[in-house]
Amino acid sequence: MDRSAEFRRWKAQCLSKADLSLKGSVDEDVAEIVQLLNGQEQFFTTSSCSGRIILIDGSINGFEVQKQNCRWLLVTHKPCTKDDVIVALRNANGDAVLKFEPLVLHVQCRQLQDAQILAVRSTHGLEVPLSHEGKLMVTEDYIDFLLKIANQKMEENRKRIERFYSCLQHALERQSIIRSYPKEKVNKKINAYSPKKKRNQEKARDRCIAEENDKELENNDSPGISAAVFPEDDEDLVLTCLW
After folding, report:
1. Confidence bin at 215 (pLDDT 50/70/90)
2. Residue 168 maps to a domain
3. Can you give the residue ranges of the tRNA wybutosine-synthesizing protein domain (predicted)?
């Protein structure tokens, strides 16, 4: 069976399903990234969250919040105030935990080489217990302090989403150029360097591609991104964006 055709059918089937998230729609801050990925034939998204501040009431086993059987006292994708949390804590009868969670994006890729374009790493989170068995264990001033940190992380997360979107656009454009680049022209330029070893040939190939395309991409450069073409397969592109 044609794997590309199978992937297209799978993508169409998944994207036609109803959004089963509590909100029922894609978060505004991540909508452009979702649209960009779903507009590519080699990708589609299965779930996403732009980042959120949440207050969960449940039980803590060791150092981890047990999400099973817990209650969501507060969920917001925007900056949060102390009063919001204090009011929500009145409904807590277990171990309430305040969390900030950054962008989450689940993407299905047609092939391994397509997945190599997406590489994001993050430790940009926050998780602090506030109550135990319904009893508040911290002061309101401390809650106010925590929310200042959480809101700062929310704002930084928004900036990182914008940067990631720019990096992703850049990488996809560069990948498209590399895939369409005439191989005959590349090979001709490689020969002009007269390499003696295969490793030198690979370096020469990368260099001549860069010479031809730098002018087209000079306005798309983004900080915090590195891209490289694997010489063994000129359709492979690696993008790393520090989250």
Report:
1. very low
2. yes
3. 10-118
